[in-house]
Amino acid sequence: MTEPAASVPRPRFAVLDIARGVAIIAMVIYHFCWDLSYLRFISANVGFDLGWVIFGRLVLTGFLILVGIGLVLGHGRGIRWKAFWKRWIFLVTGALVVTAGTLAEGLGLAVVPHAGPWPVVITFTLPQAFIYFGVLHAIALSSLLALPFLRAPLVLVIVAAAIVILLPALYSNPLFDLRQISWIGFWVEPPPSNDLVSVFPWFGMVLLGVIGARMVLASGLAASLAAIQPVNRPARWLARLGRWSLVIYLVHQPILLGILFPLAGVLHPEIAMREDNFIASCHATCQAGGTSAELCVTYCQCGLQSVIDNDLWNAIYTGMVSADEQAKLDESTRQCSALIYPVAPSAP
């Protein structure tokens, strides 16, 4: 697949750099909001709320399509192996750093009961949601898998993209729920991970980028696109960010968490958030029982104050309630109920 044309200098498409710049900004915004959600600065569950899930998938789709476009522009006329391997090693190194970092973040010690001569045994605990095949892992593998498609018949590339994208919707097997092979993509329930970008269907997005770039180059639009240059400061900044998108991807999360973790340690947003969650849940339950909204406000504020005064948060969130805690909860219920439904005076 290597030929003399591979050494011919290629024009740099500023419009592609700008698109990468937009994509990396969107990725930073998503991860920033995910961090805020994780540390309880905001109530939204970025990992599960539908709107955020769609936004994250759109950002990932854009990134992978751009990978395919970049491969065609960089190696479509012949693979420049030195440049390819240099970038590929950088990707793999970054992927390994992400895996090692997320492993180290949750690595710890656990004391567990033991039936042998020792009453307990100290063991290592591994984080369940560490990133073992995330965005960088997927880009590195997809870069290799896409090479034969850079010059294969376009119809073949289109068929392959359709198969990769659609097959997971038609076939799944619990065997692929195993972490060791879940990265292929045919799982029923994926293993826990903060970022799992499986080959099926996401490699199909890279192939879509390959298809789009090849069609544009064949149509004669390439010269017009290459002529587009950033003429104002925002466009130039976006292009600059796009040229450094991989570096930004690697460093932005450590920077964000390095700022937010100390802030969370000082501000304790989880405390305010748990109070808000308690009030919201209490209001919903109270009004579902037929009590007016105004009376529910009084009742729930009373209940919250009782929980705070008696330090009952653990009992509420774990469901493990001691006899003493249950007595306090029962007394709180009676006192708060008396506020909204006073006992009528007895007849003389």
Features:
2 domains, 348 residues, disordered C terminus, mainly alpha
Model description:
This protein has 348 residues and is mostly helical. The protein has 2 domains: 4-105 and 135-188 and 197-267, no CATH class; 269-340. The protein contains 14 helices and 2 strands. It has helices at residues 14-38, 50-75, 81-106, 135-145, 154-170, 179-182, 199-219, 222-227, 233-243, 245-267, 269-288, 293-310, 313-318, 323-340; strands at 108-113, 120-125. It has a two-stranded antiparallel ribbon. β1 (108-113) and β2 form a beta hairpin. α2 crosses α7 and α3 packs antiparallel against α4. It is elongated. 26% of the residues are buried.
How would you summarize this macromolecular structure in one to three sentences?
The chain has 348 residues and is mainly α.
Number of beta-strand segments: 2
What general outline do the C-alpha atoms trace? elongated
Question: How many H/I helices?
Answer: 14
N-to-C terminal Cα separation, in Å? 103 Å
Mean model confidence by pLDDT:
85
- State the strand order across the main sheet: 1-2
Give the low-pLDDT segments. Answer: 108-126, 344-348
* Main pleated sheet: 2 strands, antiparallel
How many structurally independent domains?
2
Radius of gyration based on Cα positions: 28 Å
How do the SSEs run, as a string of H and E? HHHEEHHHHHHHHHHH
Helix content: 55-70%
- Please report which band the strand proportion falls in: under 5%, 5-15%, 15-25%, 25-35%, 35-45% or over 45%: under 5%
* SSE class: mainly alpha
